[in-house]
Design a protein that fits this description.
This protein is mainly β and 52 residues long. It has no helices and three strands. Strands 1-2-3 form a three-stranded mixed sheet, with no helix packed on it. The protein is flat.
Length: 52
């Protein structure tokens, strides 16, 4: 499963990412929004070891 998600709240109001409430376990996770908080356009791509 591939999830293209946004960072929703950074854990301040619940889960860190918006797919976590559904107990999903994606093999590939892509977060294209800025993660730095300072306007630096830093994206995130996470892969499980069995996907690589």
């Amino acid at each position: 499963m591939i999830v293209d998600d946004i960072q929703a709240g950074s854990g301040r109001a619940g889960d860190f990412f918006s797919f976590e409430f559904a107990d999903l376990s994606p093999g590939v996770f892509f977060c294209p929004t800025s993660l730095s908080g300072c306007g630096l356009p830093l994206s995130l791509l996470l892969l499980k070891s069995n996907v690589v």
